[in-house]
Amino acid sequence: MGLGQRVMEIADLVTPAGVVPSLKATSKKQALQELSKKAADLSRLDEREIFDALIERERLGTTGVGMGIAIPHSRFAKLDRLVGLFARLDKPIPFDSVDEQPVDLIFLLLAPEAAGADHLKALARVSRLLRDRSMCAKLRGCDSADAIYALLTETQASAA
Description:
Layout (H helix, E strand, L loop, with lengths): L18 E5 L4 H16 L3 H14 L3 E3 L2 E2 L2 E4 L6 E11 L9 E10 L4 H15 L1 H9 L3 H15 L1
Parallel strand pairs: 1-5, 3-6, 4-6
Antiparallel strand pairs: 2-3, 5-6
Helix pairs in contact: 1-2
């Protein structure tokens, strides 16, 4: 890492408005539809465009990474910054995950077409955060969007 480059933080990706504490969905498709709706508000992209891109990405291979976690992501030409959205589902849903376990934590990541390494850094950052079993247990135990946001963003300071 060169001088002047700081580590990407979850707070760079998600705002408090990007936290959904209890997403109601009964299928992967429905979850992606609901998240696309929310992401459209945050990114000013078209909801349908987001949904289609996420479905297209899922066709390449599931973004259900295991342990109840999915990290759907895509790139968009009209986007000028990374946009993240974290959702906790009311009830776990089938997501074609690599470990065949249902998913209840989803971190959606939208990146500008030209983001290059930043897109990959963001994915790595999210993946590292959600590989932490105790973090996931805490996220599952939170009762509000504010508590989830605080948890997502406070750990970097102590991990730095």
